[in-house]
């Protein structure tokens, strides 16, 4: 998570984006991934650590950290980037991530945002949902 936060602060998004995955693509909503113990453990770990960091570990940092962990394990994912307006009509951004049919982070508020970009990585192994 520290690496994700560092990258977010010091690397321009145009240079960071290619490392998130293939832009404007999506992965399948494979129902076999729902309740997968490995995915649940990744999700819990990132959320637990995110609560304990002294820096802001918000949606994009968490989604990036989860994507890195999923990619290392050969699992596919899709990161969604969305925008909306708050009460003061200011533009706000949000990121959330999904692996198969399992929402990993940030999905609770996804209906409020308009998706402006997606980044995905396909699973490396065919037998992995």
Structural overview:
There is one protein chain. This protein has 129 residues and is α+β, with helices and mostly antiparallel strands. It is 33% helix and 25% strand. The protein is built from 4 helices and 5 strands, in the order ααβααββββ. It has helices at 2-10, 13-16, 37-52, 59-72; strands at residues 22-23, 77-85, 91-99, 102-105, 114-121. A 5-stranded antiparallel sheet has the order 1-5-2-3-4. A hairpin with a 2-residue loop joins β3 (91-99) and β4. The longest helix is centred in the middle third of the chain and has 16 residues, at 37-52. It is globular, with a radius of gyration of 14 Å. The two termini are 25 Å apart. The relative contact order is 0.24. The model has no long low-confidence stretch (mean pLDDT 89).
């Amino acid at each position: 998570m520290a690496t994700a936060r560092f990258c977010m602060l010091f690397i321009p998004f145009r240079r960071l984006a290619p490392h998130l995955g293939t832009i404007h693509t999506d992965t399948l909503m494979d129902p076999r991934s729902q309740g997968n113990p490995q995915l649940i453990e990744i999700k819990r770990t990132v959320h637990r650590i995110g609560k304990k960091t002294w820096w802001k570990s918000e949606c994009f940092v968490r989604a990036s950290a989860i994507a890195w962990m999923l990619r290392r394990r050969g699992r596919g994912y899709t990161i969604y980037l969305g925008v909306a307006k708050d009460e003061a009509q200011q533009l706000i951004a949000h990121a959330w991530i999904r692996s198969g049919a399992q929402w990993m982070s940030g999905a609770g508020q996804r209906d409020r945002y308009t998706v402006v970009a997606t980044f995905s990585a396909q699973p490396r192994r065919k037998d992995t949902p």
